Amino acid sequence: MSQTLVISETLYSQLQATAHERGLDNLEDLIRQSFETWRARRETIQQIDALRERLFAKHGETADSVDLIRADRER
Fold first, then answer.
1. Rounded CA gap, 31 and 33, in Å?
2. Domain locations in the chain?
3. How far apart are CA 24 and CA 31, in angstroms?
């Protein structure tokens, strides 16, 4: 099943150029690649958030070390 999407000529040209720069044959490949990249990033962010929650549950809130580092540098 195919769908039609109406976009400006300017955007179409930019997308075509981007696809060509990435060595892709068509816009469908560019959109697919972009979606997969977005999905992978979203999953990574979810994993990071879960890790932060586990660390917070185990260790509580950790202090900001910027002031300690700054004090060490001033010595």
1. 5
2. 9-74
3. 10
How many residues in total does the chain contain? 75
pLDDT tens-place string over residues 25-61: 999 999 999 999 999 999 999 999 999 999 999 999 8
Cα separation, 17 vs 22, in Å, equals 9
Residue labelled with tokens 């179409």: 12
Q: What is the pLDDT of residue 25?
A: 94
Phi-psi region of 64 (alpha: psi -120 to 50; beta: other; left: phi over 0): beta
pLDDT level of residue 62 (50, 70, 90 thresholds):
confident
Give the span between the Cα atoms of 2 and 25, in whole angstroms: 18
Q: Residues 6 or more apart from 26 whose CB is under 8 A from it?
A: 19
